[in-house]
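To the wet lab folks,

You asked to see what we're planning to order before we commit. Fair enough. Below is the target structure as tokens, and below that is the sequence we designed to fit it. If anything looks off to you, flag it before the synthesis order goes out.
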């Protein structure tokens, strides 16, 4: 990754936008991990910003994204018009969901033609396992077209990606990436201020801001407008009696490698999961 000063004197690799960004950040994270809350916060702490939401992995993000914001406000015009509205020296922020750097490192093409050297910072957004899994499953349960088996299939795939993300988080310091834990971010003002300092952004608005509408907002509190009114640390409490959630936790607990990763970053979650009751073995005679 290059420094802001280096980008100022080097050829503008983002010239297709029609502006030269002052700083370019790329963030990856699982759905239901506070990605949009953090993206909005980053924009609020920049002079002006251009945000490309949910870019398509492996492709040109300027052509393959799902939504544009200018300084925290949704923009319905063309990308070039949005860039002009953001202006010279804007923060350029790209987001990716449910994908990992390790799946692209061999070719360095997570962002298509824009290699890692095109970015001033790579952010890894992650959330505690129990709250993340509860939030994602609750969101899936609101989709009436999904059956229980459909939900479990989605969750099983998501578990694998989440586990690999935790590996990247643990290696963040060595890889030069910045890991942001949504749980800490949402409850600790000093944590947020330190992240802004690490990114070279001026602290302007360190609040949690408004609940972002992407993905329908909160999986649990649909009518809450202010993020400080969310109980994001208590999601698993609301789901612990759900049979599907219980089954998901038992499935995750069977994977020793996965549990080691959870324990390294969220030991309290891992400790709770080790207390799950062991399911009785099925008696083969029942099926004879």
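Sequence we intend to order:
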């Amino acid at each position: 990754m290059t420094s802001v000063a280096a980008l100022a004197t080097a050829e503008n690799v983002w010239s297709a936008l029609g502006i030269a960004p002052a700083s370019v950040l790329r963030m990856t994270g699982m759905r239901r991990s506070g990605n949009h809350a953090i993206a909005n916060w980053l924009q609020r702490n920049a002079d002006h910003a251009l945000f490309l939401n949910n870019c398509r992995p492996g492709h040109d993000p300027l052509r393959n994204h799902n939504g544009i914001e200018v300084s925290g406000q949704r923009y319905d015009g063309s990308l070039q018009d949005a860039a002009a509205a953001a202006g010279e020296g804007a923060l350029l922020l790209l987001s990716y969901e449910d994908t990992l750097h390790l799946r692209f490192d061999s070719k360095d093409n997570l962002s298509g033609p824009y290699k890692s050297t095109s970015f001033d910072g790579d952010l890894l957004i992650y959330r505690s396992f129990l709250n993340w899994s509860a939030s994602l499953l609750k969101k899936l349960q609101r989709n009436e077209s999904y059956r229980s088996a459909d939900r479990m299939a989605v969750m099983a795939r998501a578990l694998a990606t989440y586990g690999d993300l935790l590996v990247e988080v643990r290696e963040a310091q060595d890889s030069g990436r910045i890991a942001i834990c949504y749980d800490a971010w949402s409850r600790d003002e000093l944590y947020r201020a330190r992240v802004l300092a690490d990114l070279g952004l001026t602290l302007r608005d360190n609040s949690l801001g408004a609940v972002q509408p992407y993905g329908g907002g909160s999986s649990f509190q649909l009518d809450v407008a202010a993020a400080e009114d969310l109980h994001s640390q208590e999601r698993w409490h609301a789901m612990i009696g759900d049979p599907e959630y219980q089954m998901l936790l038992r499935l995750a607990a069977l994977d020793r490698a996965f549990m080691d990763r959870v324990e390294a970053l969220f030991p309290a979650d891992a400790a709770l999961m080790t207390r799950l009751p062991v399911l009785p073995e099925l008696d083969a005679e029942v099926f004879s």
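Structural context that might help your review: The radius of gyration is 20 Å. The chain has twelve helices and seven strands.

Thanks,
Computational group
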